[in-house]
Structures are given as C-alpha cells and as structure tokens.
Amino acid sequence: MCSIIGFINHENSKEKTLKSLKKLENRGKDAYGIYDGNKLEIHSSLQSFSPTSNSTKTQMCFGHGLHSIEGFQPQPIQGKGVLVFNGEIYNYKELNKELDIETDSDTQTLLAYLDSHEKISAETLSPLSADYAFAYLKKKIITLARDPLGVKPLWYFIDENSKLEFASEKKVLNEHAKELLPTEILHYNTQNKEVMIEERILEKPEQETQDEYHTIKDKTWKLLKEAVRKRLPTNKNKKVGLLFSGGIDSTVIALILKELGCDFISYTAKIEGNNIEEAQDLIYADEISRKHFLRFHVATTHVDELEQQTIDVMNLIEDNDYIKVSVALPFYLACMRAQEDGIDVMFSGLGSEEIFAGYRRHKQAKDPNQECYEGLKIMHQRDLYRDDVITMNFTQELRVPFLDKELINYALSIPAKYKLDLEKIEEIKDEVEAKPYLNSEVRSKIVLRDATREHTKLEEKYLERQKKAAQYGSKFDKGLARLAKNAKMQKQDYLDQLWKEKIGKELPQRVKY
User: Fold this and answer.
1) What is the dihedral of CA 203, 208, 209, 213, to 10 degrees?
2) What is the DSSP letter of 144?
3) Is 399 helix (H, G, I), strand (E, B) or coil?
4) pLDDT number for residue 436
5) Model pLDDT, residue 513
6) Contact call for residues 130 and 91 (beta carbons, < 8 A)
7) What is the pLDDT of residues 251-269, one digit of tens each?
8) Helices 303-317 and 322-340, interaxial angle, to 10°?
9) 100 Cβ contact partners less than 8 Å away, ≥ 6 residues apart
10) pLDDT lower than 50: segments of the chain
11) Cα–Cα–Cα angle for 472, 474, 475, nearest 5°?
C-alpha cells in the first residue's frame, strides 16, 4: 500500500528520507509526506519538497509514500503522536465504535487507537484484524511493529552510535539492516537512544473445534468468503487482479470474487522457446477461465529473455535463492502484465497450503496442525517479503485472504483428519521414504475442497487437482534449468554466478526452512 521510512538521530535525516522515498517511489505515487520533528510537510510529488542543504541539524525524519486504495489519507499523520503506516486495518469500523469516533480512513482510526494507549504492546495490538507495518512516535518513544504474520514488511538498523533507521524495504538502509520479526515490537527512546525489543507470539487456538464436519465446512467457507470480501476496495475505480494458477487456492478466490460481483482480471505467466512444453498451470487456468467466464490474461516471455528477467527479480527481492527466484519469476511477469491493465490491488492464494496442510511436510508430520502453525511463523522470510516487493514494484497492493486472522484461528482448530487423508498416510508410511511420489496420492486440503464442492459448481477435475509448486506448474524451473545447462552449471550455482557478475554483492545468507 505504501512506503514508510525513518532516520532518527542522523545528520541530514531529511535528505536521507527524501532520497529513500525516491528509491521506493513505486510503492506509492499518490502523495508524499515527511515529518522532521517539528514540521509536517505533504506534497503530490517529491520534487515539491524544499531543498535539504540547510537540514544538517534535523536529527529526525519520518517519510511516507502513499498508494491510496481506501480513501485518501496522506501521511505522516499527527495526533497525540505521529504515525507512518503501511497496510490495511480491516476491523477499523469496529474499532471506531469502541473508541466512539468517526473517521474517514483506517489510518486515522489506527492513529486514534494508538493515541488512546499509554504504551504500545503486544496486548495493545492484539485486537487489530489487519495487515500492517508502522512507526509511531509519542513522548520521545518510537514504536516499530508489524502484523503477527509479517504480511507487510519492515526493516531496521541501529548503528554503533545507536542511530536508528527503518524502511519498508532493505535496499534503502544500511547493508546490515535486519528484518523486524513479526514476533517483535521495537521501542526506541529518541532522547537517550535506549532500545527495547518486546517479544510476542503468534496466537493460536488452545483446542480443536468440536464442530461437526458439515459445520466445519460451512464455517470455513463463510470465513474465507468474508476474508475476500473485506479485502476488496470499496472504491470501484480501483482495479482488481488475481494471480491465477488454476490450482484450488486461486480458483476458489476467483469464484468468490465472481460471486461477490467483483470485476477482476486473472493473470498467469508462460515461458516459450527451447522446446519447453505448455505449462500445466496455463492449461488449467485457461480451461477454468473459459468454463466459468473469467477474464484471463497471459504474460508471455521467451527463454532468451529469462536471464535478464532473473537478474531483475534478484535485484528486486534482494536474494538469489533458487526456490525464491524460480517462484518469483512467473509472479513478477504476471504483475508486469497487470500493470498494463492499471491493476491497483492483486489477490493471491498464498497461505492456503499452511492453514489446510497442503505441503509434503504436513503429510510427514506427527502433528499436522502444529506443522501448519510453525510454517505460518516463517512465511515472512520464505514468501511474504518476496511477494510484497514484487507487487509494490508495479504499484499494486497485495491481498492474501487465506492469511486472514479469523480464518487462520478457525482453520488451526480443525482436526487434521479433515485436512489430510490420515488413513492413506498410515498405509504408505513404510514405503514413502523409498518412494516419495506416494505422497502425491494422499488427499490434502480436504475441508477446502469439500467446502468448495458444496458452495460452487467447480468441476471435480479442478477440485481435486494436486499441489504443484509454482516454478514447476509454470515451467519456469525448466527455463532456468536450460540456462544453467547452457552455462554447464547447477541451477543454484548459475544464480550465484549471475549474482556475483551482474549484481556485484556478497552472496546472501541462505536460510533453510
């Protein structure tokens, strides 16, 4: 939705903030604002800000670039405190009733809500049903926080002199900047430079639901439908897109969007050349779009163009991990195509695998629901930052309804037997190590498939399509494999070489999930 930036106890903080806003300009082009500790300044363009040559004594500056989806609220915004905020507060109307106020935007509500508390804490933030990252200054204390899953990104760096800097993306900060974990809330005293990091946990249900299966299916569908509905822009001039693979997750969102009367376009990417066969994702997406009358656009690239696109993606996501890059490529091209159509909001089926046990590791786990919970805790590292910076590069707001707070809380309470075919898992457990392909015979995400069967007219062929990772279903893995083979290298080694030669930075530290 936006970019947020800050430099605290830095010389030339205003100049640094404006330069950073320029680098992250694609994250929000509707308005720009800064707060230098005394003065709040808002303009429609970065060129309108006053010169910074006399600002060396300005020790603090907040910056914000606005991508306006709901209402038009330039930031920073000031009340008892000062706020820069990226995200969406989905229950802001309920919070307004609690606070007995009326506001024109969720940003105003968030400011009023934070202003109403003496101290910002995990308990304070728990009532928010939201995707957010913010910095809030009140009484010399700056609080940095993000939503418990990390849908919205936030990075920070504190140097040896306790100077603080933060931003939505790492690329505008010190090279040693760290991601603020979703399980952390950072408090920084601007006067004495003391730092306190408060730990919090991702909430989960204490026990499994006792609902009957027919009730579980009905509740799951209602919660998912509501998660999609509240993520739709109320401004009908804002255009909506959907990343569409033809798998059960994106198909369900497409059918719900259609039922809700949303005029949207679905997008898939394909790669041609070098005898690469037609991608399975494209075949399924095209069939479903025709049968269910969905508008469907295809982003097409050629193997000859793939190396430069790979470099562009690695630069953007600041990583060259093979899995991340190969998943990012079709996503990147689909969003590029969507930009041509003026898409403002992009829906994704990300998160369904984690709450409905769709991965192989869920089938191998002793406790699939605990494995779901553990997977949710690391999505910010594995998936969410990558997807956020790609969509925002094309000035599109990412919406992920499967990561809705209320849906997750209920989904994690659903017994594993309604997500996975546990009898089949037991039957093949002695063979699966030698024959891992047997995992594909285990029915997964059962409750989602059964709920979809009851509430839509989706054909069985598409209902029961098994999980295929994005890089394989789109054939972009094949494209990268061809490039690596031509270079006589393994795939990761090929990306390492591209990183060193074309990007010229030290190789990123790889994390095993």
Assistant:
1) 130
2) E
3) strand
4) 77
5) 61
6) yes
7) 999 999 999 999 999 999 9
8) 100
9) none
10) 55
11) 65
Q: How many CA atoms lie within 13 A of 155 on its CB side?
A: 17
What pLDDT was estimated at residue 440? Answer: 80
* Nearest C-alpha neighbor of 334 from the set 377, 293, 288, 279: 279
How wide is the angle at C-alpha 393 spanned by C-alphas 39 and 131, nearest 5°?
70
For residue 76, say if its preceding peptide bond is cis, omega within 30 degrees of 0: yes
d(CA 411, CA 337): 33
Q: Are 185 and 125 in contact (CB under 8 A)?
A: yes
- Per residue in 387-414, is it b (16+ CB within 10 Å) or e — as a string? bbbbbbbbbbbbbbbbbbbebbebbbbb
Taking the CB of residue 263, how many other CB atoms lie within 10 A of it? 10
Strands 141-146 and 77-78: unpaired
Q: How far apart are CA 418 and CA 431, in angstroms?
A: 23
CA 264 to chain centre: 20
Listing DSSP states for 234-255 in one string gives SSTTSEEEEE--SSHHHHHHHH
pTM over the 0.90 mark: yes
User: What are the distances in angstroms from CA 495 to CA 266, 446, 509?
Assistant: 30, 37, 14
User: What whole-number distance in Å separates Cα of residue 385 and Cα of residue 398?
Assistant: 11
Structure tokens at 210: 């006792």
Contact 76, 82 (CB under 8 A): yes
Q: What is the pLDDT of residues 309-361, one digit of tens each?
A: 999 999 999 999 999 999 999 999 999 999 999 999 999 999 999 999 999 99
Is residue 11 classed as helix, strand or coil in its secondary structure? Answer: coil
Report the SS3 class of residue 52.
Answer: coil
Please check whether residue 346 is in contact with residue 391, taking contact to mean a CB–CB distance below 8 angstroms.
Answer: yes
The predicted pLDDT at position 57 comes to 63
Task: Note whether 438 and 329 are within 8 A (CB).
Answer: no
- How far apart CA 87 and CA 147 sit, in angstroms, is 9
Q: Rounded to whole angstroms, what are the CA distances from 35 to 14, 72, 86, 141, 429?
A: 8, 18, 16, 15, 60
Q: Are 345 and 396 in contact (CB under 8 A)?
A: yes
From residue 354, give the alpha-carbon distance in Å to each of 170, 215, 231. 26, 21, 20
Written in H, E and C, the secondary structure of 147-184 is CCCCCCCCEEEECCCCCEEEECCHHHCCCCCEECCCCE
pLDDT value at residue 356: 98
Q: Which helix (H) or strand (E) holds 137?
A: strand 130-138
Sheet holding 178-179, edge to edge: 40-43, 31-35, 60-66, 2-8, 164-167, 155-158, 178-179
Q: Output the six-digit token pair for 241.
A: 């897109």
For residue 115, give Cα distances in angstroms to 64, 66, 214, 268. 19, 22, 44, 44
